[in-house]
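Mods, move this if it's the wrong board.
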Amino acid sequence: MDFDMVEDVLQDTLLSVHRFRHTYLPGRPVGPWLYAICNNRMVDFYRRKRRIQLVESGLDVTDQTVVEIRHDDRSTNGNALDVLNKLPERQRRIIKMLKIHGLSVKEVATHTGMSESSVKTTAFRGYEAIRKLLGIKR
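Not the wrong board. Structure tokens:
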């Protein structure tokens, strides 16, 4: 990470601290509250950076990215995109936006016109369907 990027993340973090100062509870430790804000800003930075790199490289993310499936025996899992394509259109679209394109729940909700809770529910049902198709037990 170069110096300009560090400055950008630091400035964004300081603005977030100011913007969310009302969430700090007096008498509670400042460290964990501040750490959570810093961590969230770093995650946001890397998500933006990844999206920009994908757009600039011209990759078609839906064809070249495989959804990560946590399972010990990956050889029996088959192609994750084949499994993803077996899902209903709505679930497939939501999961692709969340996991492949790296959008947040709020961004997906805005893009689709759904509520955030509907996005979460649809994604959860999609994840459960993927587990079932792959024979993964919780």
